[in-house]
Amino acid sequence: MSPQKHRDKTEVKVELYTYEWEIHNFDLLHNNGLAVESSIFQVGNDKVQWKLSLYPNGDGTFDSDGYIGIFLRLVSPGTGPPVIITKCEISMMGRNITFKKDEFTHNYSFSTPQNGWSLFLHRDKCINALKSDRSMLVRCKIDKYTAIETKPVQRTKIFHIHNHRWEDDCRKLWQEPHLYSDVKLLVKNEKLPAHKLFLTIRSPIFAAMFTNENSEESKTNEIKIDDAEPAVVKAMLEFIYTDRVKNLNLYARKLFAIAHKYELERLKNLCEQTLYRSLNAQNAGEILMLAHSYGSLKFVDSIADFICEHFCDVVQSRAHYKIDNAQLLKRLMRSVAMLEL
């Protein structure tokens, strides 16, 4: 039995911040022991506040005369911890030159709110290389440690799930139907290749053709379709393979009929939805007759309700002449009469 193993990982989380402070006419600052202070700047979500203190000609400590001193001061710990572990990098720059860059790490708190250098840079080294406006740029980069988190090491994944789906394969067979084709649909003068598997699992009518060994379709592997145009049959095949029709609004009326013929119920529902969205006073009579011939009772009711609500517009457009079913006309007349009561 192999020994058990456990491995942890400790992560030190850090917030990074850069503050830049430009001091104009720096060469005029030469008072010994007096500091120039930056504005207060805030770092991190816990709103810790800082400022820089710069001594242009010594901070009053021993041998600091003639040197520039620079310190990072903690103004307020905000909502952070009582001790703030901070790494600080300070640079002083003039005209196309960095005079000096240095860094330190310090545990800031109320008892130790400041850290930096009394002898950061000799003043004479930078005076002659200031910018054209006699300014100097101080850049302060702060890495503030926010948390230390230890957690178990997860096993490295050594496998990849390929982003390839069944519907991609189905669409490929629809776009290239000659691949592995085992049946043809004879439509007018065209022969459309297809696959029995897709036809039978989507349509009970096609399934009945190929499960009957004595049927003409089963013997010849050909299906004759004389009551639809090739474009409509191609749209039906697109639905059979991909469960959608790209230009359904162009073929909705004719697809409605062929979907009814081959019992493609979902395609019928999609056609009903598309036809209802296109409904207006001019086409209401024709769509009502389609609904009566091929649709569900609910679809017929929806079209009839629309005609009753817009009866004057339908009559004015003469769309009611398309309704050649006596029972439908009687129903509409009764519904309109009820609305007028």
UniProtKB/TrEMBL annotation:
Entry superkingdom: Eukaryota
Gene3D superfamilies found in the cross-reference section: Apoptosis, Tumor Necrosis Factor Receptor Associated Protein 2, Chain A, Potassium Channel Kv1.1, Chain A
A GO BP entry: protein catabolic process
Residue runs in coiled coils: none
Residues in BTB domain copies: 181-249
Domain MATH span(s) in chain numbering: 16-142
Identification of the protein by name: BTB domain-containing protein
Species of provenance: Bracon brevicornis
